[in-house]
Amino acid sequence: MSSLILPDSTVAAQNLCDASGRLDPRAVGWSPRPLVECALPGNWGRRKRWNHWCITTPHWMLTLTLADLDYVSYGGAHFLDLDSGKLVSHTQRRPFGMGCHLPDNAMQSHAFNHNRLQLRADDRGSNIRLTATAPRIGGQPLQLALDIQRPAHLDSVNLVCAMGEKTFHATSRQLGLPVSGNLQLGGQTYSCPPGQSFASLDFGRGVWPLRTHWKRVVFSAPGGIAGNFGSGWCDASGLSENALWFGGELLHLNEPVTIEQHPSGALAPWHLSCASEHVDLTFTPLQHHHARPQVGPFFADTRQWFGYFDGILRGPRGEKVPVARAYGWLGETRACW
């Protein structure tokens, strides 16, 4: 497993690709900070770009997706009231990436604009202002303005790997970001309880195979506890995106994490574990959401479960760390795109 070296301020960031759009081998590896400029020259029609935000609180969860697949751009907002079980969602598409501004760096502002859905993240480095507006989502107007903190000491998982001879992907997983502010859905206002509300960012850029399948798990808890696990897209690369955070300190797990659901229904519990025993968690879903956007023969069939995690983690020095009702989500996608 390779690891990028943190550059000093006089060294230019590493480019993901060469001028012809092929993966630069020098970009491959992982780093605790985003170091790669992810421009994707050439490869039109095969490029995948997205920024996916998830907000978790003890009472509600929200996901916002901004994606550009060259032939179509996509914006989505999904809101879940954990107390009532109410789930509302709204998506919009525009042709040829129109209305979607996704930069080449994980620390830059991004936006999706449609007259029925506007999403924007103004990234100032140490903080992000996240806003969204939709005139009708589940029959009601949506307005949100959230302030997300990105503490200077907080590391992230930044990974570049080859997926095949001509396919590759770069990602930045930023978890456990404290969030404040309010969301208004119709006549009801939802706030972010201090110390219990967290944001996560999934920044992805790459040239993917036509058919793919992957899983991902994310959770955050008070005290700087968080976890990111995934499978599918980097399995054959010898690299891992699996990681835990303890008090904001990143522990990179260079091993697979098994993610299995009990075969008793859509809301059955899941079990997560690994050989080193760093992870032994049960995920209890509270709600299940299924989306399958399709353009001609291309589709992304995504199932997402929202709920909480309980169990035991092992910290950097082998100590046992209990986890109780850490809110998060689990997603599984099969795509032809």
What does this structure look like?
This protein is mainly beta and 337 residues long. It is built from no helices and 26 strands. The protein has strands spanning 14-15, 29-31, 36-37, 47-56, 60-68, 72-81, 87-95, 100-101, 110-114, 117-123, 127-137, 140-149, 157-162, 168-185, 188-191, 198-207, 211-221, 225-231, 243-246, 249-252, 258-261, 270-273, 279-291, 294-295, 298-314, 320-336. Strands 2, 4, 5, 6, 7, 8, 9, 10, 11, 12, 13, 14, 15 and 16 form a 14-stranded antiparallel sheet that branches. Strands 17, 18, 19, 20, 21, 22, 23, 24, 25 and 26 form a ten-stranded antiparallel sheet that branches. A hairpin with a 2-residue loop joins strand 14 (168-185) and strand 15. The protein is globular. Mean pLDDT is 93; it is low at 1-11.
Pick out its properties.
single chain; 337 residues; mainly beta; 14-stranded antiparallel beta sheet; 10-stranded antiparallel beta sheet; globular; disordered N terminus
